[in-house]
Amino acid sequence: MIPRVFVIAFVLASLLILGGSGCATKKYARTRINERVAPLEQRTGELEETSRRNSQDIGRLDQGIQDVRGRADRAQSQADSALAKAEQANSRANNAEQSVNDLRNNLDRYSLQSTVTVNFNFDSYALSPESRTQLDQLAAQLKGRSDYILEIAGFADYIGSVAYNNQLTERRAEAVRRYLAEQYGIPVFRTHDLGFGKSRPVADNSSRAGRAQNRRVEVHVLVRVTSGASSTAQTSPASPR
What we know:
Elements: H1 4-107, E1 110-119, H2 129-142, E2 148-155, H3 162-184, E3 191-195, H4 208-214, E4 216-224, E5 234-235
Parallel strand pairs: 1-5, 2-3
Antiparallel strand pairs: 1-4, 2-4
């Protein structure tokens, strides 16, 4: 018989051998699993990083789209505003053109009713107290009426150049027009002024008195003619100074 001590030793040795073999197998399995899992984990990390970057890119793209939409909306708003202003300007132009056409059509319906003449000092376009009184009387006659237009024509004596006298007589006519508008609210569209320089003298420029008469502004009152009505021309005498 085999001694019991040998049997026990044999069993222990067998267990040790089997235990060592099992450990080796588990270690091998873990190594193989790690070899397969590591690339997957690395790939998963790469995909997560790519996803994060894509999310950032999408966010920036969305912001860019919103900015573009905002600029497009502002541009559209500006274009709409410009179009509205252009339409308003076109409407005003059409109205002005219609007013001019109406005035042209109605010019032949006006006749000269009266003329007021105011005189000026040499080389001056300032209104004298006497001239203001004459314009005050004219404004009183026109108060409450809307059937007239005023032709305001400025003139000068022969002294000075043509260019200078043209400018001077324009200022004289403008002074009369401004006085009537500022002091009596006569609508500007009812007044038309022009300087004629030293043309159309009414007196002899060789005399001092004649030159004083030529330094003048004539205000022609034109009244709209109604059917069956007639007008009589009235001219206030010039007052030389």
